């Protein structure tokens, strides 16, 4: 078995957890066999002193099909 890892960024206006969840759910629509996620970094967009967008940089692992 061969595992491939891709790096993606998910976003949310609610939380970092929701941003990571969105990254996995959206990527799973086009990647088959996602087996794991490693959240590498959290960032945010700030406007007028408030967080308006949460971002989660994630590495997704999935198996490569023959």
Concise overview:
This protein is of the alpha+beta class.
Could you explain how this protein is built, in words?
The chain has 66 residues and is of the alpha+beta class. It has one domain (3-63): Flavin-binding protein dodecin (Dodecin subunit-like). Helix content is 20%, strand content 58%. It has one helix and three strands, in the order βαββ. The protein has one helix spanning 16-28; strands at residues 3-12, 34-47, 50-63. The chain has a three-stranded antiparallel β-sheet. Strand 2 (34-47) and strand 3 form a beta hairpin.
CATH architecture: 2-Layer Sandwich
Oligomeric state, counting identical vs distinct chains = single chain
Our estimate of the beta-strand percent is over 45%
Write down the CATH class: Alpha Beta
- The CATH homologous superfamily name equals Flavin-binding protein dodecin
Order of helices and strands: EHEE
Number of strands: 3
Count the domains.
1
Low-confidence stretches: none
| H/I helix tally | 1
Rg, nearest Å: 13 Å
Estimated helix fraction: 10-25%
**Intertermini distance:** 9 Å
């Amino acid at each position: 078995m061969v595992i491939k890892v891709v790096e993606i960024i998910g976003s949310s206006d609610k939380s970092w957890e929701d941003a990571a969840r969105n990254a996995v759910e959206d990527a799973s629509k086009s990647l088959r066999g996602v087996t794991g996620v490693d959240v590498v970094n959290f960032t945010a967009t700030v406007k007028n002193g408030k967080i308006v967008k949460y971002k989660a940089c994630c590495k997704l692992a999935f198996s490569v099909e023959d």
